[in-house]
Amino acid sequence: MAVYVFKFGGTSVGSTERIKAVADKVKQAHDQGHQIVVVxxxxxxxxxxxxxxxxxxxxxxxxxxxxxxxxxxxQVTVALLSMAxxxxxxxxxxxxxxxxKILTDNxxxxxxxxxxxxxxxxxxxxAGKVVVVAGFQGVDAAGNITTLGRGGSDTTAxxxxxxxxxxxxxxxxxxxxxxxxxxxxxxxxxxxxKITFEEMLEMASLGSKVLQIRAVEFAGKYNVAxxxxxxxxxxxxxxxxxxxxxxxKALISGIAFNRDEAKLTITxxxxxxxxxxxxxxxxxxxxxxxxxxxQNVAEDATTDFxxxxxxxxxxxxxxxxxxxxxxxxxxxxxxxxxxxxxxIVGVGMRSHAxxxxxxxxxxxxxxxxxxxxxxxxxxxxVVVDEKYLELAVRSLHATFNLxxxxxxxxx
Amino acid sequence: MAVYVFKFGGTSVGSTERIKAVADKVKQAHDQGHQIVVVxxxxxxxxxxxxxxxxxxxxxxxxxxxxxxxxxxxQVTVALLSMAxxxxxxxxxxxxxxxxKILTDNxxxxxxxxxxxxxxxxxxxxAGKVVVVAGFQGVDAAGNITTLGRGGSDTTAxxxxxxxxxxxxxxxxxxxxxxxxxxxxxxxxxxxxKITFEEMLEMASLGSKVLQIRAVEFAGKYNVAxxxxxxxxxxxxxxxxxxxxxxxKALISGIAFNRDEAKLTITxxxxxxxxxxxxxxxxxxxxxxxxxxxQNVAEDATTDFxxxxxxxxxxxxxxxxxxxxxxxxxxxxxxxxxxxxxxIVGVGMRSHAxxxxxxxxxxxxxxxxxxxxxxxxxxxxVVVDEKYLELAVRSLHATFNLxxxxxxxxx
Lengths: 411, 411
Known about the structure:
Two copies of one chain form a homodimer. With about 400 residues, chain A is an alpha/beta fold. The first copy, chain A, is built from twelve helices and 20 strands. An eight-stranded mixed β-sheet of chain A has the order 3-6-2-1-9-11-12-10, sandwiched between helices. In chain A, α1 crosses α3, α6 packs parallel to α8 and α11 packs across α12. Chains A and B meet through α1, α2 and α3 of A and α1, α2 and α3 of B.
């Protein structure tokens, strides 16, 4: 008998029929003698409907009240799922975040979990009940309803799994696992059986939006074995776990990419201390997130400074940068919003040299010009012209033999 | 400066526009320096939508989960109304029943309020905020969400008014007060400025569905001055309060009627002790509510027994009664579902004789045959053929001079 936390997202509970299908899956696991806690999101579309209502009331809706409003979405789902389980003769009991209670700080709309009281849940599990918990929400010390931000249901599930010391936390989604790259770009992309937390973090932050980053961090921190599976099909999914010896064979686990990037360069900047903050400060003030940052070695006392932003922020950032350029007496500001970032990710890089040079050679062989390069311990990212995206991903996928299980590549 | 509790029902908050109109009304009172607590229902249609979802999940939805589900309706409204108030620059804070907390027993879907913690509300009022409370809901001692049953928002408002010792509790609805009778039947019907709790109870239970009966009982018990007003029009509405000397002039306050009645008679029943329970027991077992009950004086050791039920239950009740009739060796079972009950209500009856005989004379003058009669201290009800409803109501309204303020009738 094992303890499992299952999490089903909005699409998986998007209709009464879907909720019944979820109940079916939960009941099967319960019938096998396992103790099951289910975390659910709002039915798909409901959160957006509520946000729409809020915006009709207030241009910038009050955040405390927004949390009161949005938390009803999951509350509806937990009640309906519990009813479906009752109808199948499976004892169940629902809880809101506040009822559990999932204590958070008081940062409305983006609260962080501080503590989970597991008493009621454990008592219900011991009594043979399935426990159905509203994801995404909690309560602060003063009793105000809080929410964890979009995708927060993943975090709820992982936090509950940690608190209950669950055997595994299953994140049911509309994909059947984590892939070596996006199958829409490379049809030979393969589902990974396992991936490490670190790799998953790099993959997720780079655009493979299967799991919320915070949930993966949380799972890594508390060593919760996380499994991504399909709500609709069968299969084992992908297990996200700590690095094991078996994994050391893997050089590269996957290829992530991000189409939403744009780059900005300011040239002829005086090469003096504090220049980076003078350039990026005004950008940050506008809440524009900066991704890659590259500063070249200075020549003739000036330097060139390049960074990437989300494509939606390109024009706004360029405008600011032109002002900054004048103040700094820089040479000029150039930009390009037709770029993509491609990254290869793998814990195997740590112990194997030559991965970067292999990557660059593959791109060179295809005559793909590399615009920017950035590396971390387990990831190498390049920025290239967006027209090369598919070609680059497929060439890298083939070279690193990602379509074959067991990572047979030897350099 | 006064403390008011305002309650707005589902129609009054049925759209974002309506919610803004409510916010406007609330802000006006707040701007005048009053302390305002607002109790709101779910947006009209929402409760039925949720019930529809529940029935898709479970034939007989689990009552605990039903309360979790339905309570989201008011939670949405309190958040939206608070946002609307914020947008107008009026400080506001929302509370669910559980947050307040409104402690109830654990009878899911029909819980009763046991205690209200007024600390948070008083603190907010002192801080100059409008407090917006979700009606219809509470929480039991174990932390389960409970609901008070349909119309329970009225009860929430009255209970809060009692707990806060409010100056008045305003129930905003789609009528502008309590009328001497239904204006659709008698266009001369007049809005009452005042009515006593007891009269209101008799009027409500007889079909003038302006206020929930339990709320009126509660208001009477805790001496909460209750005012029924229109959400959409202006006006003073009707104040429901204790009997005052001024009121003693009133003989009759109003005429209530009920079109949903049907009568059943069993004749030739042995006149022995326990016969009423033998007849009504099987009816009660089917959850059929019996309204008027009349047993005539026995002749030749048998008696006739007549009672009324809701018209929807007529056939079911008749079937049962025929079985009972055989067992008791009664003569026969007859029934009529083309009847109505008409009642005149007024605290003035207590001190004035002759009201009943006046009523009977009016009906006799119009050649209306009285089928059944039943009386209480402040009410006289008659059952007549339904074709006489309008004629009877208008004749009584005229005879008792109800269209004129000040109750000028002298008998």
